[in-house]
Write a structure and sequence with these properties.
single chain; 87 residues; mainly alpha; 0% strand; elongated
Length: 87
């Protein structure tokens, strides 16, 4: 994804430098790895919250969980993608 300090214009030649098109099989594999990793990480975080006695039905706790889960899960998924050579 886009990161601060990089060009946001996806139409520029620099924005697509080094990227390659994935075959349908590679795309399916990448998507599977990405979403399985996100799911696994979010379940881990939810279990951790429950073990600490946090009530996920509480709107404030739920919002905190969503922020933590979205950040941590996305980072874990990006790391898993890098390990497989897909970025």
């Amino acid at each position: 994804g886009w990161r601060p300090g990089t060009k946001k214009d996806s139409g520029s030649a620099d924005a697509n430098a080094g990227s390659k098109d994935l075959s349908p099989e590679e795309l399916l594999k990448a998507a599977t790895i990405y979403f399985e990793t996100i799911t696994k990480k979010m379940v881990e975080i939810a279990k951790n919250y429950k073990e600490k006695g946090k009530d996920l039905k509480n709107p404030q706790v739920s919002q905190q969980f969503q922020m933590e889960a979205s950040t941590d899960a996305n980072e874990a998924a990006e790391d898993a993608m890098k390990e497989t050579g897909v970025t």
